[in-house]
## 1
Amino acid sequence: MDCGKIKGGVGYNCDSPLQGAVEPTVRLFNKRQILGYGTGSTRNLITSLTLESGASGYLFEGFGRSVAPSQEVLKMASGQNLTKHQVVLYIFDRGQETKNIIQDLLLGSFIAVVEGTKKDADCFEVYGLNSGLMLAPGKINEQNADNGAYVITLSTPEGQGESRLPQTFYDESAYSSTKTLLDGYLYLPTITVVSDVTIGTAGGDAETITGTNFYGSQGSDDVVSLTWVKKTTGVEVSQATYTVTSATSITFNSVALTAGVWNLKVKTSKGTFLSPIKVTVS
Amino acid sequence: MPRKVKMKKAGQTLNVPGMGRFSDDNITPEMYDKLVKLSPNFADSFVVEEEEEGAKPSDQNGEER
């Protein structure tokens, strides 16, 4: 056996010193929906994930230092040294939909992908790949602290250990393509084109919006709502009637809107996207 | 028509807990079919080429192996 032997040393890179800190976002996956993963030319480097058909990951967004990953060494009863992976994340929402998601977190096992602030080959790390992460016991909410945000601690389950440190996720090409690959697992909606950006207040103008993931990770309409958002006031008006013609196209006749500049917001079961494309109503 | 299955990225290994590790060294059309049946998303890891009956390996891309 060749276990326990180090096979190289580590230098100090003056030109590109280590940069700590992580982005306040986590991509969470249901562990049982990850069927496989690709590994690359560097030992233990993860290059891709394979999800169950129709499954997706989910993006949890926070603020500032609201995501705190950590790892520690565990001495197991067998004498093996294993590792404990842990990701603490703050959830700044108290809506019932969010509470339902947190309740689901109580029961499941998850894999988290954390993104470092330095956008390089080492910036994405996968936590819980083998044993999964489960909600750790303890207080998750205190109304008088952090404005009532939920504090969720996902960690390697008690009595278990990960055989590896959190592994780097990198497509062996570039940060940008690695991020695109990871974002592809989330099936988040986007709007890239609005066919008519000058419409009338009375409504009835035919529109086609082009984008991505209007089917989510399924094979059919996943759009929950389509909404107009007025740029100056943030007022929202529902575009109540629309047809999702494909995963990349939605058609509708505009509703009546007051004069001004509006943006379109699309919501699917995977997330919400507010289009930066300005539509002038006059 | 016979098929040849390769990893999409040379040197990559696909790890499927419970089924094993697959690379250019051991992936077969039959195992590919089994994986894709499990999830069509597995197809993203591979390239499938159809081989003409009786074609020599060197006929595939014009290079000697």
## 2
Amino acid sequence: MTKSVVCSLVVATGIALIPAATPATAQSCGSDSSPSDSSSHDDDDDYDHYDDYDSSSSGDVPAPRKVCRDATHLTGFENCSRFGAGWNSPWPALRLEVGFVLRRVSLAGTSLEGTAEHEGRNHRYNIVTDEDDGPSLLTGGLNLRLTSMIGRHFLVGAELDLAGGPAPDAETERTDHQVDSHRVVTAGGGFVVGLVLPLGPLRLRGEVMTGGQALVVSGTSQIGDCIVEESTATGRFLFEPRVALEWFVAPWVSFDVWAGADLIQRGTLGGGIRLNFHARSYDAVP
Amino acid sequence: MAHGWWMAVALLGCGTSYAAGDFTDRGRRVELRHRSFECVDVRLQPYVDRTVGSRFLAIDYEIGNRCLSPARVDFRAVTVFGQFDREMAELPLHDWRGEIVEATLDGRAYAREALAYQPPGATVDPLERVCIDLNGLADGDPVEPVCFAEENASLKVEQPQWEGMPWGHRREGR
């Protein structure tokens, strides 16, 4: 099996392993839903691998698989393969990048107001932070990118990130209304363009990410004995210049570390580390 | 999950890729079957394929790219000469499906291809010597041909000689 095929399998595995986002929930008092309805038991650790076999077959015997085998590897006399199969690369130099991201999300000038329904009436609240001169959130999560090199010095692509963290407190209009924020989830994405400077085995990259980000703060709202789950959301644009340093550990695998600052929402900083899988070795740069 | 990730990284990071010297036993001995272009190393061995039989001369090519950038590879540029009854004759590449094209070998990649060559007669049986001119296979300075002589029913590599070979005059033109 060629390295490129192995790489593709690992990439596919990586996509399958990325955990799904848990959507924020909101319910009013009197709802029939019970907490157990929304919970799920993750049995991954107990999962056995017999599903790798064809379950339609009887017993534990795996179903036979059709394998094409040539009697010769001589080009022109093969039935299962052709010249260049596995090494003459017709596919583009795509990069799949998966990593962890840490962000300080500035809330300066950001409105995070919400309403909670109690006994048929809406009650307003406002998420605030304790910091007077720079309200912010600290989030951590996953970053996923699909990029491609163009020539030797340019990179383009798109990215998504999903992060979460502890939420700040909330202010309410009524003294008997208490809102406890549990967590904040951010989902962002956009397009990336970059300038790449090869430095021996390293690549120094300057890039700009342009896109948007949604912030969802969820928690519970309580008035008297009435407790409801509530969430509030806001969106914003991002324009984030970054610097990154990439290091190839193998022709098809590299790591990079990066840091950036949002120019629209001043005070929003980000950084992280990524593991990159390359469809072409060293991105096939000339 | 973390275990799976690190296994994947280990598979890719510790796996084999081509590096300079892989065809020459890391430079500890001279490999007569090996030639080097600017980025591409080639190692070859002619043989008679069991399945196809002696109707064709088969040549097993191993190619490796020492560079980090992709390299052009064109097997159609290789010229093969065989000596039958002391007469040298060119053996054309047998590509009836037209599948052999100019190809790209990525940086540090390794590949292996076996190609068939048509002898002038019905079989390759009276083959006494075969010489392969690899020039044009990849970019770089001209290289000497690789020659094999029949010895005890097998083809053994021998020192290449330009003199007396049918492409000797072409060397000066390159």
